[in-house]
Design a protein that fits this description.
transmembrane; transmembrane helix; Rhopdopsin 7-helix transmembrane proteins; 12 helices; G-protein coupled receptors family 1 profile domain-containing protein; glycoprotein; G protein-coupled receptor activity; two-stranded antiparallel ribbon; mainly alpha
């Protein structure tokens, strides 16, 4: 009885990595693609296209679309459906291993640029604020980000190959360097950088609120003119960036722990049961890291009213335009009432 039960558990553990890649992987692939398309529609719209952070987030959405439809898709086929495309075709092997780190770093860097742009816009000093929302700079940094990481990771396109049925680097110093590079930049840096940026962004938002308090008393004065719709979008986008930073920390800390653990224990003697358990943990943490790329659209839909209006405008253009015209009329009426002499 015990032997049979043990065999059943081992069989379930052995099947779990494949099932995770099929079901969880396909779920992430579908939701991620829908989110990328939604982000591209919104950040290409007239209301957003002239904002620097939109350029960064649009570029990130394009990068994520490639990430889902090559990196994640090949993972599902290789590790879920057991189609050996990476160990059968050298070019796919090289490009997939390159894109897995390159796409990761490009997306995180562009998201960091968008967060820094919002951070600069909330600063008290005009010297820092003038660096926010610089459209020409955002285009240059987006292109520079893609080229920078390509030059830094492009060696995988040349040096990676198929060795003994495995797609990987040649053994030796290069393999050690490449391994630790991925651990540091793809595993450890994202949660640390996002933690720092989230903290600074939250602190800056609090400072903006505190600056509304008049010196000499603690009474918050009401604004004379209500915020414009675009200002409300910017404030809501700041909230979205903070939540996305929190998601990054939650999803990438397990991934970083797994990468470190794998490197520390790679020469340890392990039982078959432990290997099976670690395989499940490895596949789960690697798939969990895709949640950051798949979640931005849905976080924006929940937190950003302007974002939702842009989506409605695409699918319900006439009704949404009438609503926006009504909102603009109401806003002009309120502004006029506040500015009339008493």
């Amino acid at each position: 009885m015990n032997s049979s039960s043990s065999d059943d558990i081992s069989g379930a553990l052995l099947a779990a990595p494949y099932q995770l890649n099929i079901w969880f992987g396909l779920f992430l692939w579908i939701t991620g693609n829908c989110g990328c398309i939604g982000n591209m529609i919104v950040f290409c719209s007239k209301s957003f296209r002239n904002r620097a952070y939109s350029v960064y987030l649009l570029s990130e959405a394009m990068s994520d679309f490639h990430y889902f439809n090559f990196v994640l898709l090949t993972r599902i086929l290789q590790k879920g459906f057991q189609i050996p495309i990476m160990i059968r075709y050298v070019n796919i092997c090289r490009y997939r291993q390159f894109a897995s780190v390159w796409g990761n770093q490009v997306s995180f860097t562009l998201f960091s640029f968008a967060t820094i742009d919002r951070l600069l816009s909330a600063q008290r000093s005009n010297k820092y604020r003038q660096w926010s929302n610089r459209l020409s700079l955002s285009y240059k940094l987006s292109i520079g980000c893609v080229l920078f990481w390509f030059l830094l990771i492009g060696h995988r396109l040349i040096l990676y190959n198929i060795y003994d049925g495995t797609c990987g680097p040649p053994e030796g110093v290069y393999a050690e360097y490449d391994n630790y590079f991925e651990v540091v930049f793809a595993g450890i840096c994202p949660p640390i950088v996002m933690s720092l940026l989230a903290y600074l962004l939250i602190k800056s938002v609090r400072n903006v609120i505190h600056r509304r308090v008049t010196p000499g008393n603690d009474v918050i004065q009401p604004a004379v003119v209500p915020r414009t719709i675009l200002q409300q979008m910017d404030a809501q986008l700041t909230l979205m960036l903070i939540l996305q930073s929190v998601i990054t920390i939650i999803t990438y800390v397990p991934y970083a722990v797994q990468l470190i653990y794998e490197n520390v224990t790679q020469y340890w003697s392990k039982s078959s049961l432990r290997i099976a358990q670690e395989s499940v943990f490895t596949e789960f943490t690697h798939l969990l890291s895709y949640v950051f790329f798949a979640s931005s659209f849905y976080v924006s839909m929940i937190t950003n009213g302007g974002f939702r209006r842009q989506i409605k405008r695409v699918f319900l253009p006439q009704k949404t335009n009438e609503h926006i015209d009504h909102m603009n009329t109401v806003q002009r009426t309120v502004v006029s009432a506040h500015t009339q002499p008493k």
